[in-house]
Amino acid sequence: MPTLRQLEYFLAVADEGSFTRAADRLFVTQPGLSQQIATLEKELGGAVFSRLPRAVALTPTGRALLPHARAAVTAAERGSAAARAATGSEGGELRIGCVYSVSLGLLPGVLRRWRAENPDVTVRLYEHRHGDTLATAVTEGQADVGVGPVPAQWRGRQRSLGHEEMVVLLPPNLGADDVMAPVGGEIALSRLEHVPWVQYAPDHALADVLVDACRQVGYRPRVAVRTEQTAVAPLLTAAGIGPSLVPAAIVPPVFAGTIARPVPRVERELAAYTGSTPDALTNRFLGLVARAAVLVPEHVSSALARS
Question: Can you give the pLDDT at residue 10?
């Protein structure tokens, strides 16, 4: 019979699509992770992953195991939390799923307030590269609440957090006649047709945001560098490699380049959402995140106003 650890390792690889990223998430070595998966596959009598050149994909056996592994690990976590709460050693656990840009930009301020008001509640974050996998994780019970782009046809509870504004980050030291120089704090995306961009990896949700925005003005953006890490794009732009399109909330407080609004504007609606019958703890978080979410930080607003 598979062990709980093997199922946890299996879910990490399935969620990340990579043994390397899963090992980083679990704080284990990749050989140790691979050994656990190999033991699991031997127990089941078949492979759970197809090893591709740059990723892994679930086999039919893996797809069949996935919902049951998710349910088993979730039940174990909830049982542990309930036991600790019953003994008075813990005030409960809140499991939050989010996309990476939300964990980097919006959530830190929200969680600061949450911890101040709920110091005995443990928070566990599950971060996802794409809103689709986040919604699946909430549906399958991995997380109590999801925070990210509005999911399509959601059947549970949902609270809109407003529209997240995307900004164009531009390299430092632009001359007035540079094609990337903004005008009045704005930059027309059409002007950047021939400029190579700092972009996200194709399976990162923010990659689609840039491609869709440029497609609306008639071109596909050229690539200077692709990164898988949400926080790295502003750093690469600050190093002079090229412009990037990022959520306003992830722009670092000290940014060496220029911040501009794209023309046409680029936004996406964010929401906090749960299943149809959230518990009291989850409902409390829904109310707080709706009140405390900041989508455009003050340093970004000030930079745009000065332009």
Answer: 93
Is residue 168 within 8 Å of residue 243, measured between CB atoms?
A: yes
In one letter, which amino acid is 94?
Answer: L
Instruction: Please give the share of the chain, as a percent, with pLDDT higher than 90.
Output: 61
Residue (of 215, 221, 220, 247) closest to 234 by Cα position: 247
The span from the CA of 127 to the CA of 117, in Å, is 23
End-to-end CA distance of the chain: 62
Distance CA 136, CA 157 (A): 15
Determine the Cα–Cα distance for residues 281 and 82; give it in Å rounded to an integer. 13
d(CA 241, CA 256): 13
pLDDT at 263 over 90: yes
In angstroms, rounded to a whole number, what is the distance separating the alpha carbons of residues 99 and 72?
A: 24
Torsion of CA 107, 110, 114, 115, to 10 degrees: 70
CA distance 146 to 135: 7
Mean pLDDT, range 70-85, rounded to an integer: 72
Residue 298: how many CA atoms within 13 Å on its side-chain side? 1
Chain segment 171-182, per-residue pLDDT in tens: 998 877 788 888
Measured torsion, CA atoms of residues 268, 271, 275, 281, in degrees rounded to the nearest 10: 160
The overall pTM is greater than 0.85: no
The interaxial angle of helices 30-44 and 4-16, nearest 10 deg, is 110
Cβ–Cβ < 8 Å for 273, 157? yes
What is the spatial distance between Cα 150 and Cα 6, in angstroms, rounded to a whole number? 32
Q: Is 144 within 8 Å of 81 (Cβ atoms)? A: no
Token pair of 151 as six digits: 């999911």
Query: If DSSP codes are grouped into helix, strand and coil, which group holds residue 176?
Result: coil
Quote the distance between the C-alpha of residue 246 and its chain's center. 13
Please answer whether residues 61 and 67 qualify as being in contact, where contact means their C-beta atoms are separated by less than 8 angstroms. no
| 264 upstream amide cis, omega within 30 of 0 | yes
Mean pLDDT of 166-175: 92
